[in-house]
Each structure stands twice: as C-alpha cells, then as structure tokens.
Specification:
Elements: E1 9-20, E2 26-33, E3 40-48, H1 50-64, E4 73-83, E5 87-96, H2 97-117, E6 135-140, H3 145-155, E7 162-167, H4 175-187, E8 195-199, H5 214-222, E9 227-230, H6 239-243, E10 246-248, H7 251-322, H8 325-330, E11 335-338, E12 341-342, E13 354-359, E14 362-367
Parallel strand pairs: 3-5, 6-7, 6-8, 8-9, 9-10
Antiparallel strand pairs: 1-2, 1-4, 2-3, 4-5, 11-12, 11-13, 13-14
Helix pairs in contact: 1-2, 3-7, 4-5
Length: 374
C-alpha cells in the first residue's frame, strides 16, 4: 500500500483516542462515523513522531486556539506506512487548523438552529429572576481556580449569600454529561435555591466544545430555575451561555453580579424607606393643617350655636315669664281649684261644692251657690 501511495495524502477523520507515551511519540486512533447513525464506518492508526510533535500538534493548537483532543474532527496530511505485523498506519506531518475550527463552528450552528427550531431557545431567559439571589446552587469542580475565585469574591460581600457546590467535570469528553447530572441533582431540591451558577476557569477554545453540546444546552433551556454562567472565556461565547438566563464572562463576574443585585435591592429598600418617611411627614403635616382648620371651624360653629341657643332660651324664658301665674294674677285673673285640682269647666263643680280661688295676694274659699253655663 505504501508503494501505491508514495506521496503524502490529505485525510479527514475523527480522533477516537490520543496518547503520548514516555518516549514522546504520539499515537492516535482515527475513525469515520456515519453522521446519522453514529456507526463507525472505518478505523485507522496514526503516529506523530517525537521530533514532529511540537511542529505538528504545537502549531495546530497555536493556530486553532484548541487542544488536540478525543472527539475532534481533523484534516491532516500524512504518508501511508505498512508493516507486515501491525498493518497499515498513517504518519501525520501536518494538521489543518482551519478545518477543525470550521467543523466545530458548523456543529455549534447546528445546535443553535435545532434549539431555535424546537422553540426552547429563550425558555430559561424568560424565567423570573428573584430580586435577591440568596441561595445559589453552584456547578463546578471543587479544586478549580474559578470556583475558588467565585467563593473569594462572595466572601467580600456584605450580604449573606448561601451556596452549595454540586461537583461536576468542567471540561473534556464527559463534561456535558457530568454537568447535566448535576442539574438533575439540583432539580430534586428546587425549593432550596433561587438560581444555578455554572462556573469554570479559563481554558482553550477546545475546552468550550462541551458547552456547545446540544444535550447540555437543551438541559439548560428546560431548567426551572434561572441559570447563570461564568465559563471563563473572553474570546468566544458558547451555546450554553447563549441559552442561559444571565451569561457572564468569569466566575468572579458571577459572584459580583449576585452581590450587586443584593446591593441594588438594599438600595431600593433604603430609597423606599426615605420616600415613605417623607410621605408620612407630609401626610402628618397636611393632617395637622386640616385639623387646625377643622378646629377653627368647630369653634366658630360652636360659638354660633351657643349664641343661637342662648337667644332661643331667652325667647323661651320670656314666653314662660309671660305665662307665669303671678303675671296672670296681676292682670286680674284667678285660678279656681277643687280639691287641689284646677277647674277648667263648670261641669267640674256642683251647687254647695267648696272651691279655693287663688289671687295675686292670697286665696279665697267659696261655696258654690249658683252655676251659670255660657
């Protein structure tokens, strides 16, 4: 076969496994998969000798900004080698960085299009974020520098923010599955948290590949709590960032955002307290003015009422005085009584009855001798 292909050839394949042994040689397992079923269609071995590792892999990683890792699709130039015992192998001389970048971008766009087509793209962003995020479920590695930065920044906060770590693998082949598993664990305790923070430190572009995973991005869109991300990459934005409720660049930025939200709410409460105090003062002042006005009105009405009632009582007193018995007596009138009861009609007496007649200056006792009806 080596004789049939004496010149280097360009080959496109997926890295199934990659190892650099103690001697410095790099051994790669290559496969080709069916895009629909994922079934392996072809398989081959490739080698990069120690003397070419830096010039081949190093140049690829510098140009692409990504580490050569398992699961990556690459386009490379290689010579075909054949060994009587080990069979065919490829000796890699050059890896095309642009091909790998293009393939990753293509897969990223496919994930974006699928999520948008399914109508889930904005679901997590549409969730209401609590005014104060006091209870945070953190998905990270306990030993990651990003997690330490996050906790250090929150430690400076004047507010009591409670966090709980749900450990996950934050890069590599198992990254997306590990983070999704952590999300499931949090979902079983939803009532204990206000939001979720997915954080990690900086890394190469290839380290972001798992955050472009459809499986992880879909899980974030469906999560019933707002998701914050601080994946720590300034040059690119992952699909997970795009679908998260609040994407931030670094773990420190996530902690600062949480602290600032609490500070904003605290400031709003202080503003409301000042405004309420001013409203109460104004209301008290207005009420005092109204009370003073009403008091004056009451005093005025009371004086008029007393004056009116005084005049009415004077009139009654005059009327009473005009009808007093003494005045009636002075006018020549008398009061006749029988057995102490004033007589009002001649029907009340009979001949020989004794009556008493009251005059202005005394009384007369009389016996009825004659009765004349008018």
């Amino acid at each position: 076969m080596a004789e049939a292909l004496p010149l280097p050839v360009w080959v496109s394949a997926e890295v199934a496994d990659l190892k650099i042994n103690a001697s410095g040689h790099c051994y790669i397992e290559l496969i080709e998969k069916d895009e629909k079923s994922g079934t392996t269609l072809a398989q081959a071995r490739a080698t990069i000798w120690r003397s070419q590792v830096m010039s081949t892999i190093g140049r690829f990683e510098q140009e692409s900004g990504q580490r050569l890792t398992k699961g990556m699709k690459i386009l490379f130039r290689a010579t075909v080698q054949h060994h009587a015992v080990y069979g065919m192998s490829l000796q890699i001389q050059q890896i095309d960085a642009m091909h790998t970048i293009g393939d990753m971008e293509r897969r990223k766009q496919q994930t974006i299009e699928q999520l948008q087509k399914e109508g889930v793209w904005d679901m997590n962003r549409q969730l209401p974020m609590p005014l104060v995020v006091e209870r945070v479920a953190v998905i990270s590695s306990a030993t990651a520098a990003g997690y330490q930065d996050f906790m250090k920044e929150l430690g400076r906060s004047a507010y009591r923010i409670r966090t709980e770590l749900f450990e996950a693998t934050m890069q590599g082949e198992a990254c997306d599955e590990s983070i999704v598993a952590a999300l499931y664990a949090i979902a079983n305790r939803l009532e204990e948290f206000d939001a979720v923070a997915i954080i990690r430190g900086g890394g190469s572009t290839s380290d972001l590949e798992c955050y472009n995973s459809y499986h992880l991005a879909f899980a974030v869109t469906q999560f019933p709590l707002p998701v914050l991300t601080g994946i720590g990459h300034d040059k690119d934005t992952s699909v997970t960032d795009m679908v998260a409720h609040t994407p931030l660049k670094t773990p420190t930025a996530v902690a600062s955002w949480i602290d600032q939200r609490a500070a904003d709410f605290d400031g709003a409460l202080e503003y409301c307290a000042i405004a309420l105090r001013d409203i109460c003062r104004q209301a008290t002042h207005s009420a005092a003015l109204r009370l003073e006005h009403f008091s004056a009105e009451v005093r005025h009405i009371a004086e008029r009422t007393l004056q009116s009632e005084g005049q009415r009582l004077d009139g009654i007193a005059t009327l009473v005085a005009n009808f007093a018995p003494e005045r009636i007596f002075r006018l020549g009138y008398a009061i006749a009584r029988k057995e102490g009861k004033a007589l009002q009609s001649v029907e009340d007496v009979a001949i020989d009855d004794t009556i008493n007649i009251s005059l202005a200056n005394g009384e007369i006792e009389s016996i009825i001798t004659n009765i004349t009806k008018s």
